[in-house]
Every structure is written in structure tokens, then in C-alpha cells.
Amino acid sequence: MSTRQSVVTFYYHLLSQPSRALKIFLDRNQIKYIPKEVQLAQGEHLQPEFEAINPFKKVPCISHNGFILTESVAILRYLCREFDVADHWYPKDSLLQARVDEFLEWQHIELRAPLAMYFRTKFLMPMITGKPPNQETVNKMYKMMIVGCDKVENIWLKDKPYLCGNSISIADILGACEIEQPRMAGYDPTEGRPKLNEWMNRIKTDLDPHYADAHSYLNAVIKKNAGKSSENVSKL
């Protein structure tokens, strides 16, 4: 653990899955931070001021003691090293840490990509453009999303309460926030997957009130759109 524990500047938006994960982790571990909400709808992430901070023009990112970091997985690992947090988040034991790393590397393509693209194709882009979603692409992302969610149910949660073992880790926070995302597009991954459902409830209990707070924006969107069909998404 480093002794350079000053305040973190946190750039985020709660529509972003990893932004929510980082906010939950920061709040849960009482890491002091200056919140800088980046207004994506207004294109703040595309402006030169933000590009100077993050040339990838995405959230989340952090600045800490003049050091800027732009990838959520790297940020979580960094925070676990720099701040006094419980070892279970990112264990120092090589084998236990390797299990967390295994999920963190797996989830990029197998889970995050299809869930995020399903949300983007079916909900986000129609909302932005006012045009109906491309059904062929929606169907393709749906099939990939189902495969990823089934792997969480049948492999990662097959015989343990958390994704990487018997204790909660940063993998669980990231994974849960990804699982939440397609709910805004009308699909709940926990339905028909009892282990996934139990795990999600366990994560919410472990991390509340911070989990609920970070997902207040997402839940408000879902509540607003309740009962509306996908054909009407473009009118929201």
C-alpha cells in the first residue's frame, strides 16, 4: 500500500457501467474523491478540455496526484494498491489474484461487449437518432448476450457465491454493473438464471446503500420506460 493517499478526481457519468462500478468502490471504501460528472448528452466528453484529460474521450477516468488513468480495470487495480482497502477486493495472494484477473480479462469480450452493444443498438442509438433499431444487429447482439449471461450462470457462479471465490472482489462490482445495463433495453439477465439472480441480490446487499445510489439513474430510466415497447423507444 502506498502512502500517497490524497484526494482522487473522478470523471464519470452514471449511464456508464464502469463509472458506476468505480463510484460504488470509492464510496464503499470511503476513498475521498472530487466528483466530476461529464455530461455525455451535451458532448462534454468530446470537448478539448476533456480530451486534454482523456484523449480517448470516454468515462470513467481519474486524476490522482497528477497521475491520470483512463481504463476502469486498471483504475480499480490502482486504487487497491494505493489505498487502504480490504484484501478481498484484489487479493495479494497470487492464486486468488489470478482468479480475479481471469474474470477481468474474460469479461471484456464475453460479457461487456455483447451486453453493452445490445443496450446501445436497441436503446441508446434509437433514443439519440430518433430512428428505429436495426433488428438484425439487435438479434445478433441478443444471441451473444445470452451466451455471455449463461456462462456467468453456469461457469463463474457454478459452485461459489461470488465470481472469483468465497469473497466479494472488484470483479463482482464490474460484473454486476454490466449485468444491469441491458435492463434499460428491456432485458433482465437474472430472469431464468437462479444463480445469477441470487448473486445479484447478494451483491446489492453487500454494497448498499452505495449500489442503489449508483444505480438510481439507471432505475429512473427503466421506470420511465416501463410498459413502452421497443418500437416506441425512439419517442422517449
TrEMBL record:
Coiled coil: none annotated. It is an enzyme of class 2 (transferase). CDD domains: GST_C_Theta, GST_N_Theta. Its EC number is 2.5.1.18. Residues 6-87 form the GST N-terminal domain. Residues 93-236 form the GST C-terminal domain. One of its GO terms (molecular function) is glutathione transferase activity. Pfam families: GST_C, GST_N. One of its GO terms (cellular component) is cytoplasm. It is found in: Cytoplasm. Its main location: cytoplasm. Belongs to the GST superfamily. Theta family. This is glutathione transferase.
